[in-house]
Write a structure and sequence with these properties.
The structure is a single chain. With 479 residues, the protein is an alpha+beta fold. Helix content is 28%, strand content 31%. The protein has eleven helices and 28 strands. The strands form seven sheets. Strands 1, 2, 8, 9, 10, 11, 17 and 18 form an eight-stranded mixed beta sheet that branches. A six-stranded antiparallel beta sheet has the order 13-14-15-12-16-19. A four-stranded mixed beta sheet has the order 24-22-25-26, with no helix packed on it. A hairpin with a 4-residue loop joins strand 9 and strand 10. Helix 7 runs antiparallel to helix 8.
């Protein structure tokens, strides 16, 4: 029996990100992956602004930028364009990069941090008590850990073995996917076209190959096991977009049925769920991988704090309270996109499109939609109604005396941003940054930032000792 602190099951983006977070905090972590080799298959392409900020908080965003193509505007519906350049972030874009590129970057970082990645390890059994979780593998061996996190996808074995229900539905429309070469590629990195016939997208891998995606109303009920020839994909593009962009070669294709499901709960004892194991939804909006990385960043520092004895067990309860709500919001957003683009009633589609166009004319509704789409608008509820309005919100990337906030978060510790002239001395697992920049509307004098870039506490002075809700006490000494 092999023991460790935490076992993460699934080496996709969520599992890799979580393993990196745990290893960064000094937690013994093992990553189990059923696949024997890292696949080239890509499902996710979009990396949104908030995910880039989270990667920046660990020093990986700039590396990822070199692997993708930035897009500065998106059109959720014809005539309804959202200009991402207006976003108040270092990354006013959606980065188009194959999921395999993101996985390669995260795996490189995980290995640098000493994460043990075990491939060909298929989980077939799970049992737990009040101290540990024991996993049975297909080869007859067992592995045990204080905690286990299932990041093993929509058909999660861990979720099933933990007895957690996965409620929701399947969408009726079948999606066509193919990797093709295009001799006349679209000029835009993210091409999308909708018509009464359906919707098509063309996304570059960056090496001459493109992912062609089609929701074709003429072919939406073809059985999933029927082969998808290139001629069918070319026909869909010609009818919907007016061109097939010179498709001449196809290396892979499939028919895909998306779902709208969410785990009833994200925790069962010492077992947690994250990423697609916890939530799956329509691919419209490109939310899946981004939400999973957000799950990993939220759970990682909390699990590490508990394992290392720096926080009470109750801290782990905040993971489900915060992220289940975010997952539900993402399901609502992607379901709305699905009905907007793929709804069967042409009249309803037209009405929804008109409504969206009108909403994007107004600053408040435009900001709200941009925040939901990019993740920048995610905020967590404060534990107390007396908390400062900044509590639970995303921390802006302010420039402090020693660097930007997200640069100062790269060692995975809490960060105290102090805007008072006299500064502060801090004891414990907290760094201090003196903010000397211009006044920010509504900004309190002192802000305690969590390792995942959200505000844990904010106020106009530092008490001698402050119990951050659901977290370990920080002893803060005034000068």
């Amino acid at each position: 029996m092999t023991e460790t602190d935490v076992i993460v099951v699934g080496a996709g983006p969520t599992g890799l990100m979580l393993a990196c977070e745990l290893a960064l905090a000094g937690v013994r972590c093992r990553l189990l992956e059923r696949r024997t080799e890292q696949p080239n298959l890509t499902r996710a392409f979009a990396v949104h602004a908030r995910t880039l900020e989270l990667l920046d908080a660990r020093g990986m965003a700039d590396d990822l930028l070199t692997r993708g193509v930035p897009v500065d505007s998106v059109a959720p519906a014809p005539g309804a364009t959202l200009d991402l350049r207006r976003l108040a972030t270092r990354y006013p874009m959606v980065l188009i990069v194959p999921q395999s590129g993101t996985e390669h970057l995260l795996e490189e970082r995980a290995r640098e941090l000493g994460v043990q990645i075990v491939r060909g390890a298929e989980v077939v059994g799970l049992r737990q008590d009040d101290r540990r979780v024991i996993l049975d593998l297909a080869d007859g061996s067992t592995q045990t850990a204080s905690y286990v996190v299932g990041c093993d996808g929509a058909h999660s074995k861990v979720r099933g073995l933990a007895g957690i229900d996965f409620a929701g539905k399947q969408y009726a429309t079948h999606i066509l996917l193919a990797d093709v070469r295009a001799t006349e590629p679209p000029p835009d990195a993210l091409f999308a076209k909708a018509s009464s016939e359906g919707v098509v997208l063309m996304i570059p891998f960056g090496d001459g190959w493109f992912r062609a995606i089609a929701w074709d109303r003429l072919r939406e009920q073809v059985p999933l096991d029927v082969p998808l020839p290139m001629e069918e994909m070319r026909d869909a593009f010609v009818r919907i977009a007016g061109t097939d962009f010179g498709m001449r070669e196809q290396r892979w294709s499939t028919r895909f049925l998306s779902e709208r499901r969410q785990a009833e709960r994200y925790r069962a004892g010492r077992v947690f769920l994250a990423g697609d194991s916890a939530h799956v939804h329509s691919p419209l909006g490109g939310q899946g991988m981004n939400t999973g990385i957000g799950d990993a960043m939220n759970l990682g520092w909390k699990l590490a704090a508990v394992v290392r004895g720096r926080a009470p067990e109750s801290l782990l309860g905040s993971y489900e309270r915060e992220r289940h709500r975010v997952g539900a919001q993402v399901l609502t957003l992607t379901d709305a996109f699905n009905r907007l683009v793929l709804g069967r009633s042409a009249i309803r589609r037209a009405f929804r499109t008109l409504t969206l166009r009108l909403a994007l004319r107004y600053g408040r509704s435009r900001t709200f939609l941009a925040g939901r789409l990019t993740g920048l608008g995610i905020r967590y509820p404060a534990a107390s109604r007396h908390a400062h309005p900044w509590t639970g919100r995303r921390m802006p990337d302010l420039r402090c005396a020693d660097g930007r906030v997200y640069e100062l978060l790269r060692d995975g510790r809490h960060l105290l941003v102090d805007a008072r002239a006299k500064g502060a001395a801090v004891k414990g697992e907290v760094k201090v940054a003196r903010y000397t920049g211009p006044a920010v509307p509504g900004m309190p004098a002192v802000v305690l930032v969590r390792p995942d870039g959200y505000v844990a506490w904010a106020g106009d002075d530092i008490p001698m000792t402050y119990q951050v809700p659901d977290e370990t006490p920080f002893n803060l000494s005034l000068p």
